[in-house]
Amino acid sequence: MLKGKSAIVTGSTSGIGLGIARCLAAQGADVLLNGFGDRGEIAALCESLGREFGVRVAYDGADMSKPAEIKAMVANAEQAFGKVDILVNNAGIQHVAPVEDFPEDAWERVISINLSAVFYGTRYALPGMKARNWGRIINIASAHGLVASANKSAYVAAKHGVVGLTKTVALETALTNVTCNAICPGWVLTPLVQKQIDALAEKNGWSNEQAGRELLREKQPSETFVTPEQLGELAVFLSSEAASNMRGAAINMDGGWLAR
Ligand code: NAD
Questions:
Q1: What digits encode the pLDDT tens for the residues 5-16?
Q2: Residue 13's domain is classified under what CATH number?
Q3: Which residues contact 96 (CB under 8 A, 6 or more apart)?
Q4: Best substitution site from 34, 89, 93 to test ligand 1's pocket, by max atoms within 8 Å of Cβ?
Q5: Helix axes 191-204, 208-219, angle to 10 degrees
Q6: Closest Cα partner for 158 from 93, 122, 111?
Q7: What is one Pfam family matched by this protein (predicted)?
Q8: Is 248 left (phi over 0), alpha (psi -120 to 50) or beta?
Q9: Both 129 and 164 in a single domain?
Q10: pLDDT tens-place string over residues 137-161
Q11: What is the pLDDT of residues 65-108, one digit of tens each?
């Protein structure tokens, strides 16, 4: 379905981004991976993805807190594939602390990677999409883009900002074949969430399993994790022609988190 299209997925060496990159590649899209990790493992990942799905897979290690590197990443993808049709702004980090104790540098880092990088990626990829009159910008926000939790001030502020930015870009592209939407996942079992499970287990003297169950029970009525593959299939749908009039939406896939 996406043969001939090319995508950038930021933060795709792990977790949700990798799940989305796999699903886009499975539909025939060429993919540029981004994110941190062991260079050898990333090279092997690119090779195996390319072989499995018969697509071109490139890698750019741009740090999403550095606008010049984001600009160079978009140029790199345009050079590798000739164009960028799909931009998935996914890279993100978390920091948990009460607002009065929140380290200033953690605030700056969360805002720059989780929010400003979405602006910069969009800023640099959109002109090419508009020139070709086709594009999909998919921002990975969070249930925390729509509701808050205590002790996550920077993350909640950044993700609400992503939802607002998504709506603005959707309005600015409304007369074109470029769409911009946000996906708002609930809990997904990735390294980002495992750290929070570890902290809960340590604080309460729980096993890893019990901490995972309690984390889910507090927020996610399904009491099961959303998976990167499920989110990847949603990204595929948003990339399809069927989704051409979804614009500025913030779609929650959250096991019922926002239903109560
Ligand atoms: P993860 O920690 O598994 O993966 C994060 C990815 O981002 C990795 O590839 C990492 O290398 C990359 N990354 C981190 N900092 C970077 C930087 N400065 N520059 C470039 N790449 C960087 O996390 P995840 O859970 O897969 O999260 C992915 C996105 O989904 C994030 O935006 C996160 O906020 C969002 N999200 C996650 C959950 C969840 O429950 N896991 C829920 C809602 C939203």
A1: 999 999 999 999
A2: 3.40.50.720
A3: 151, 152, 196, 199
A4: 93
A5: 110
A6: 111
A7: adh_short
A8: left
A9: yes
A10: 999 999 999 999 999 999 999 999 9
A11: 999 999 999 999 999 999 999 999 999 999 999 999 999 999 99
Residue 28 CA to ligand 1 centre (angstroms): 24
Q: Which residue has the tokens 């980002």?
A: 192
Under 8 Å between Cβ of 140 and 185: yes
pLDDT on residue 188: 98
CB count within 10 Å of CB 149 equals: 13
Q: Are residues 102 and 157 in the same domain?
A: yes
Assess if residue 260 is contained within a domain.
no
What tokens appear for 58 in the block?
A: 């490139």
pLDDT digits (tens, 9 = 90+) for 109-122: 999 999 999 999 99
User: Which of 70, 162, 192, 252 to mutate to test ligand 1, by most ligand atoms within 8 A of the CB atom?
Assistant: 192
